[in-house]
Design brief:
With 251 residues, the chain is an alpha/beta fold. It has helices spanning 15-26, 45-51, 76-81, 92-97, 102-114, 127-132, 134-146, 152-158, 183-201, 219-223, 240-250, and strands at 2-7, 34-39, 55-59, 84-89, 118-123, 163-166, 208-211, 230-233. The protein has an eight-stranded parallel β-barrel, surrounded by five helices. Strand 1, helix 1 and strand 2 form a beta-alpha-beta unit. It binds 2-phosphoglycolic acid. 2-phosphoglycolic acid binds at residues 7, 167, 172-174, 211-214, 232-236.
Length: 251
């Protein structure tokens, strides 16, 4: 079953627009062999839950503790109480703009799993690493994935339901490079990620999604590859008609 997640990022700009988009999402028909997830900004989660039929709810971020003093943060327990199933963790925009560290991302991933939610852990190389060649890309991804060797054992122990999203930073539509990943290259890198998970953690069934400029034109190319278990869709998920087409190319 392919997993297609809509990452709305900091959109839409008003509650009124969010209600409109959610109503359109409520009318989307999700193909039987596809699981669709909507990750709106957290302020729209309560609106989204009753509006999106046949889709799961996702959050874009989380704190690693339940309760206590953490001004401005949202806990796994709060997300669970709002019927959230998936949580995006370690998105490259948070790594870059908010300087989220591997350590913090590790703690968030573990907290999400502890509370019975499913992390969508984002990894992906920046352009300079891409240009340095395949060996460097692999080194970079392996490090991001396993966070660091000291925590590797516990990462493997808790890997459990974690979904990985491979998003080359330079291929994200708003990265400004204008470059796009080829489905064949994405499939090759995802096969490598799966090999690492198998060799290091003995995991053979971790889902790995592709993300970065997936839209109605490019979706089928990625989703028909057996190595690619789905997509994390940013910009193109802000249009319900386009998201419907992406779901259809996964079905
Ligand atoms: P994009 O974003 O589909 O707009 O490239 C994907 C993401 O950042 O998750």
């Amino acid at each position: 079953m392919k997993l297609i997640a809509a990452n709305w990022k900091m959109n839409p700009e008003s509650e009124e627009e969010a209600k409109k988009l959610l109503a359109e999402f409520g009318a989307i028909k999700v193909p039987v062999e596809v699981e669709a997830v909507v990750c709106p900004p957290e302020t729209y989660l309560a609106l989204a839950e009753p509006a999106i039929r046949n889709m799961a709810l996702g959050a874009q971020n989380v704190f690693w503790e339940n309760g206590g003093a953490a001004t401005g943060e949202i806990s796994p327990a709060i997300l669970r109480s709002m019927c959230v199933k998936y949580v995006i963790v370690g998105h490259s925009e948070r790594r870059e703009k908010l300087h989220e560290s591997d350590e913090e991302i590790w703690r968030k991933t573990a907290a999400v799993i502890r509370d019975g939610l499913i992390p969508i852990l984002c990894i992906g190389e920046p352009l300079e690493v891409r240009r340095a060649g395949e060996e460097k890309i692999r080194e970079f991804l392996e490090k991001q994935l396993l966070i660091n060797t000291a925590t590797m054992t516990s990462f493997c122990q808790t890997l459990g339901p974690t979904v990985i999203a491979y998003e080359p930073v330079w291929a994200i539509s708003t990265s400004g490079t204008g470059l796009e990943e080829e489905p064949e290259d994405a499939a090759k890198t995802i096969a490598f990620i799966k090999q690492v998970l198998k060799e290091r953690c003995g995991s053979e069934n971790t889902k790995v999604l592709y993300g970065g400029s997936v839209n109605k034109q490019t979706a089928a190319g990625f989703l028909k590859r057996p190595e690619i278990d789905g997509a994390l869709v940013g910009h193109a998920s802000l249009n319900a008609g386009e998201f419907q087409k992406i779901l259809e190319s996964a079905g």
